[in-house]
From TrEMBL:
Residues 121-158 are annotated as: Disordered. Residues 1-22 form the signal peptide. Residues 121-153 have a biased composition (Basic and acidic residues). This is Uncharacterized protein. Keywords: Signal.
Length: 246
């Protein structure tokens, strides 16, 4: 009994090592020839359809697979093609779906479906476009959300009091109520005067003669954030701090 218990895990490992889970993959290629007798399909420029990490198109190869009655053949309009009429595929650019499984340390692949036409790039493109739009909407929602703990997430002007400014780092330390944070000025940050005039852009505007004194401790500024970055900094009147002290 002891020996049997010790052997059971080993037997199971051997059995499961022989056949691993199958997976479907999509390939593209051109049908060079179809042998109606053997049902062999010769494909050229055969390559897997997947996103390239280096931006280079994968090299195609020549491959031969065999049709069965279970293989689904369709034309470019989605109409089914009988396996007996598989010669209609010759010379056509096709999309091939393979079922790949590892058996006895070897990859065995069988054809699941062949469709005339290129992989649905337009559909994939629309999917990517939808994803980009969805991500943009999420960013806009984040920017639009007013947070008491972190007012910098708002995409409309938020009031701050300047604590200090460091032009060398392009940073302005501010506070809003109990919240203290540091905002980062980049090359696209616009500085706007109290009457709406242009006061420059980027870190250079922080050291401009008309602006630097208005970024010292105590002055009130308004900041507009967009997608997590400082879009605009609205400067106060030069005498606003003096009027407050009176």
């Amino acid at each position: 009994m002891f020996i049997f218990r010790r052997l059971v895990p080993i037997v199971c490992v051997v059995l499961f090592a022989g056949v691993l889970a199958a997976a479907e993959r999509t390939y593209s290629g051109v049908v060079d020839k179809v042998d109606t007798k053997t049902r062999a399909v010769l494909l050229k420029d055969f390559k897997e359809v997947k996103e390239s990490k280096d931006g280079k198109e994968p090299k195609g190869k020549v491959a031969t697979y065999y049709l069965t009655d279970k293989v689904e053949l369709t034309d470019d309009k989605g109409n089914k093609i009988d396996v007996k009429d598989a010669q209609k595929l010759e010379g056509k650019e096709v999309t091939v779906t393979l079922n790949e499984a590892v058996k006895n340390n070897k990859i065995e692949a069988t054809i699941v479906a062949i469709k005339i036409g290129k992989p649905d790039e337009k559909r994939a493109g629309k999917g990517e476009e939808k994803t980009a739009k969805r991500d943009a909407k999420r960013e806009d929602k984040k920017d639009a959300a007013m947070s008491k703990n972190d007012p910098s997430k708002a995409n409309k002007p938020s009031d701050y009091t300047v604590v200090s400014a460091d032009a060398a780092k392009g940073e302005i330390a501010v506070e809003a109520g109990a919240s203290k944070l540091t905002i980062k000025v980049d090359a696209n940050t616009k500085f706007i005067g109290p009457r709406g005039g242009d006061r420059g852009e980027g870190v250079a505007a922080m050291t401009a003669e008309d602006n630097k004194d208005l970024l010292t401790a105590g002055y009130k500024i308004k900041v507009v954030m967009e997608k997590g970055k400082v879009k605009e900094i609205h400067l106060p009147y030069a005498n606003s701090l003096k009027d407050k002290d009176k």
